[in-house]
Structure formats: structure tokens, C-alpha cells
Amino acid sequence: MKRFSNTALAVALTVGLAAQTQAQVQSETLLTDVTIVDVAEGTLAAGQSVLIRDGLITGVGTDVGAGRAAMRVDGNGGYLIPGLWDSHVHIFSSATEPDTALPLYLIHGVTGIRDMGALWPIAEQQALQTRIEAGDVLGPRLILAGAWVDASPGSWPGMFLADTPEQARAVVAQIAAEGWAAVKAYSMLDEATYLALAEAAHDAGLSFVGHIPERVALGTAIDAGQDGMEHFGRVAMACSTDETRMLTDLRDAMAGGADLRRVFEIMASRNRIILETWDNALCNTVLARMAGAGMQVSPTLVVADFYTGNWPAPEAPRMQMIPEVVREAWGRPDFRLEAMTDEVRALATDSIALDRRTFLMAHRAGVPILASTDASFANPYLFHGFPLLDELDLYVEIGLTPREALYTATVAPPRFFDLADQDGTIAPGRRADLVLLDANPLDGLATLRHPRAVIAGGRVLNRAALDRLEATLLEHGE
Ligand SMILES: [Zn+2]
To answer: Could you confirm whether the keyword Signal appears in this record (predicted)?
Structure first.
């Protein structure tokens, strides 16, 4: 796949979305009679008003006044939470993906996303980010963390490549100069290159996140100061008494010139070994180290549905909201499914159960979690928007309270991204990214499925506006 230009798209987004939604843009908005949910503390404050000016919250309380020109929105006793974050998505895998992705996020109350790898040139990603911030394009806040670095030839098109420590340092210099928010390690890096990448990222003042490379131990990544890790399987693997042997087997095979088929075979064989050698005491030690280091985990547990064939029916509404060309692509044979061995398929239920058990232990050990999905047109059936709510439901099913699950999508992400105007609280000086709900989400997350209103960067999308966005997507999806 080659890179392409998106000037026409940006124009379409600007004109199209603004006209479709007729979102209310006012410099000052007074939201009255809401119950503010403090997700960090688990407390409620009823009968509050929130004043929003130029995209920021400027007043919160029972006695907040507004100018005569302010737009007034009656919250009718609804529950107000900070906007949700999906901390692992890919919205730039095709020229027109944001057209669908951006409204889908807002419809589901997701007012912030972190992009973890893209086909668009960085300048065009930044141009879209700027237009969203300026209010010219309707969409969630965008963190551009997709500077993924892999060994050549690269697992995906358009990656940064590094096969030596020298190349790692050069690549980080380029990433820093281009203005990315982070350096993302990818799976096939060798250990020496990976360690140089970690050091160079930190020297450049960049966050260092991503996959734990397949030949690197989780403990090595902790010692290297990796700030965030994507996906969850490598945590369960580090709880195996055979982690070292599994890594050595792959290193030896690759050093001996094994072809890609053999490499995938070795990686696939790990599932059985992990199930046989996962150790509770070792796991607690590993998780305590992760928690102590503050290593953030973006679990993307919903990805398992793709591998187990838990896919929506073709006529499901969620299928109708995405372009037909994407639905067709999702229906074609997938290289990841084809790489699954019979053994992996047979063990899938047990492997998923072990991941979930390990996930609950991680949460209880204090490992910081960022709710995330890997949503992308390039990842079949991982829709934009919907799966974040599925992921949060899964956290509750596994054993988190609704408040704890909500924390991973509202409080943890902006604090990890170190945003000056967002920390998961609803207070003066904070960005007006908010969701108004019918019911108290601390009692259950079902109410997230149908928000009364979503406020993105101070722009109010009431239920009617959200319904119009949804109707537009359904029309385009046909
Ligand atoms: Zn991803």
C-alpha cells in the first residue's frame, strides 16, 4: 500500500460533517441541573451547573451564572462524566477512514483517541488534528502516537525501520523532529536495537510505548523504562516459568536464518507452553514489578473476538455504518487467521480465560490500565466507537467495578498523556469533553450505550444531533 494525499478528504470532512450535524457552536454554554460524577473519587454532586467558554470549563457549582448570549442546555438531572478515551486505535489506514471513524467515536461518547499507527503522512495527520482543534472538523481529540518502529522489512507498510542501535537513534531523531507524541516499539525488533530505541526516546523526552518485541522479555522492557505496553498476551507469557526458553527458542531460530513461516510457528507454539507453565506466584512478582514501574497497559481484550470468530451478523446495524468496501475487505481471508494453527484454535478458549484471569490480577496489583480496542478498518470487525464500550463491559465482567472500568477510559488516559487541560475531572480550566447520561454509570455501564448528549471541545451534540450523525453513517454505509 502506498501513501496518498488527503487534501480532498479534509475538505469533504470540513464541509460534510459540519453540514450534516449542525452541531451547536457557541462561545459560551451553560449546562444546568446535572449530577457530576467524580470517577476518581466515586462521588456524585447533584444539582450542578457547568459553564463552558471557548471549549474550556470555566465554572462548576450550584450558583454559576452566564452571560445573556450564552446557550443554555437543561441537563434534566442527567449524569455528567468526563468524555471517554480509546487509547489504542488506527484511524488512518485508508484515505477516507476518518470520515467514518470520527463521527462513530463521538456517537459513543469517545471524545479522545490515541492513534497507534498510520498510513497517512504525519503532516496530514497533524493537519486533521489542527482542524479538529480549531472546530473546523467535528471529531475527538487526537493524540498521534503512531511512530511505530520495526525491524526491516516491517510488519506493516509505512513503518520506521531499525536493525541496529545506530539506526534506532537516527529514527528517534526523525520521530522527534516530525512532532509525534511517542515512539512505538514493534514486534520484530532485536533486543540491542530495542534498548537503543528506549534510551534514545527517553533522551529525546518522548514517551516510549508499544509492543514488547517477540525476542525481548517483559522484565527487560520494564528495566528499559518502557512507559506503556500494547495488548495483553505478553503479560501472561511473562507469568510462565518458561518465558526465557520461549524467547531463546525464537532468538536461536532467527539467528539461524529461520523463514517467516517457521517464526510464526514458534510464536504460535507459545500458547500451549504458557497454559502449561503459567505460575501464580511468579505472576504476582511480575505484576508487582510492572505496577512499581508504573508501566501502563492497553489490553485490547476485545481483539480476541476477531480470532474466535465472534463477529457481528452482516445485517447488524454496526455493519451498516461502515463503508461497503470495508465490509467486503473484512469478508476476505485474513493473514492473521490463516496463521493460526489447529493447536492455537483448540486452545483459544483456555488462552482467553488465562489472559482474563491475569488481567484481573494485574488490576488488583495496581498495574495502570488504559481502555483500548485496536479499532481499525485494517482489523476486521474492530469497529470505531462501539468496541470501547464492549471492552469496558468486559472489564466489569472480569471483576472490575463500573467505576474502576470507567477510570481506565476517563481518568487514566489523560493523566498518562500528560495533558495540561485534562485529567479526568470536571473542573474549571479543564477541556469541555463531557458525556451526559440518563443513569448513574457507577451503578452499571449500560447507560453509556445511549448518551443524552456528548460535548466535544465545548461543542454540544444533543441526542438529536447524535441521531443525525448515526443516520448519515447508515446512509453512507449502504
Ligand atoms: Zn494496533
So the answer is: yes
